């Protein structure tokens, strides 16, 4: 587990030098990054950022990857104007910072984004993916929001489940074997509880040797030993969305 001076292992990873192919828009009270495929589609994916916020190039890279696979992708600012975490911040202040950014209290913003996707983008089938903080948000939404079709939680902190396992929609869970903040025993217990209580399709997958952030915060070209798992995680994510959207 992470030590007290470092309650979260989220270093920035390999910050991509990436500008994005989409555009920033205003959706009621929320700013958002939107990217659309060249061909018309009624399928969309909400991308929920990690603690480093909606402008992190790595997360926009993932949104654009969804677009190249035929989806409208939107990454809203779920911190709603509050500052994202910075690598230079003092980790001793992290818990206080997190209290004002609750991954389980984004329902108002999600409703606004869903309305925008339906009314402005013509989306009828909408899923959600999220990373780290966003992965926990996906878990919350899969337990609560009836309007989403499916979700992918990428190393979302399991403790946010709060002993609720009745998922409403098919959900895919991605974890790294060597994640400092999500012990494997928690992952095993999650899978057991889902098997006992969940009535929809789900999958829990652990990627060998991988640390927190591997799907979107490691660059495959400078992490050759991790490249197969980075690519596998991204491919699995797309395949899950393709199956249920």
From TrEMBL:
One of its GO terms (cellular component) is cytosol. It comes from Menura novaehollandiae (superb lyrebird). InterPro entries: AB_hydrolase_fold (IPR029058), CMBL (IPR042946), Dienelactn_hydro (IPR002925). Transmembrane segments: none annotated. Belongs to the dienelactone hydrolase family. This is Carboxymethylenebutenolidase homolog. Signal peptide: none annotated. Keywords: Cytoplasm. It comes from the Eukaryota. The keyword Endoplasmic reticulum does not apply. Its main location: cytoplasm. One of its GO terms (molecular function) is hydrolase activity. It is found in: Cytoplasm, Cytosol. Residues 30-245 form the Dienelactone hydrolase domain.
């Amino acid at each position: 587990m992470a030590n007290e001076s470092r309650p979260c292992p989220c270093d920035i990873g390999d910050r991509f030098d990436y500008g994005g192919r989409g555009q920033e828009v205003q959706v009621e009270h929320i700013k958002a990054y939107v990217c659309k495929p060249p061909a018309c589609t009624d399928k969309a994916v909400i991308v929920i950022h990690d603690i480093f916020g909606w402008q992190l190039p790595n997360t926009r890279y993932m949104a654009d990857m969804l677009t190249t696979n035929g989806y409208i992708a939107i990454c809203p600012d779920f911190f709603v104007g509050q500052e994202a975490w910075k690598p230079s911040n003092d980790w001793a202040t992290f818990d206080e910072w997190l209290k004002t950014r609750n991954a389980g209290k984004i329902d108002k913003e999600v409703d606004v984004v869903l309305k925008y996707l339906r009314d402005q983008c013509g989306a009828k089938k909408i899923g959600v993916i999220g990373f780290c903080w966003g992965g926990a948000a996906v878990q919350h939404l899969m337990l609560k929001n009836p309007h989403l079709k499916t979700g992918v939680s990428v190393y979302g902190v399991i403790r946010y489940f709060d002993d609720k396992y009745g998922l409403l929609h098919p959900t895919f869970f991605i974890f790294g074997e060597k994640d400092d903040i999500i012990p494997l025993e928690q992952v095993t217990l999650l899978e057991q509880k889902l098997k006992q209580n969940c009535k929809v399709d789900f999958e829990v997958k652990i990627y060998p040797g991988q640390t927190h952030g591997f799907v979107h915060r490691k660059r495959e070209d400078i992490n050759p030993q991790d490249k197969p798992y980075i690519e596998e995680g991204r491919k699995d994510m797309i395949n899950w969305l393709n199956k249920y959207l």
